[in-house]
Amino acid sequence: MILKLKKYTFGFDVWGLLLFIIVMIPNFIWSAVPAPNDILRSGSITEAIDMLASVCQVLMIAALCILRNKESKKICLSPLIITSAACCLLYYAGWIVYYTGTVNTIVILALTLPPCLAFLFFAIDRRNGIAAALITVFTICHLIYGTVNFII
Predict the structure, then answer these.
(1) Nearest CA to 65 among 18, 28, 26?
(2) Rounded-to-integer distance, Cα 21 and Cα 23, Å
(3) Which is it for the CA torsion 126, 128, 133, 139, positive or negative?
(4) Taking the complete model, does pTM exceed 0.90, yes or no?
(5) Is the pLDDT of residue 3 over 70?
(6) Residue 125: partners with Cβ closer than 8 Å, 6 or more residues away
């Protein structure tokens, strides 16, 4: 573990912060402007999972923004970054459909998986294994939350 940590350095990654802001924009809008048929405002029955997800979310964003792998190259339009951007677009499309009042399994999954995958593809591109591990746990928790609360 210590050997692997030697690959990392503390340093601000503006691209990690930018990705976080891009993913959070629909959430900020949703906080201010309720959607029709807004089931996402209902109480959660997965409180323990939600707490773990929140902790992982904070840690993953911190890892994406302040931990840099010394072996990662300068950011460019790699296939992983393009896929991350495509996931953001799919996530935005999910929010657009949600705001039309449509709520079904596909919409809930579109609001759940693409943002997680956007972060994961970005972390893999940046060779940030620490962030990728945290994102994986967050993704599992977020998927459980979405599935248990809104699909089944």
Answers:
(1) 18
(2) 5
(3) negative
(4) yes
(5) no
(6) 72, 75, 78, 80, 81, 84
Distance CA 15, CA 138 (A): 20
**How far is Cα 95 from Cα 71, in angstroms, rounded to an integer?**
36
Q: What does the buried/exposed string (b/e) look like for 74-87 if buried means 16 or more CB atoms within 10 Å of the residue's CB? A: eeeeeeebebbbeb
Per this entry, what is the length of the chain? 152
Condensed to tens digits (0 to 9), the pLDDT of residues 93-115 reads 999 999 999 999 999 999 999 99
| b/e map 101-116, b = 16+ CB within 10 Å | eebeeebbbbbbbbbb
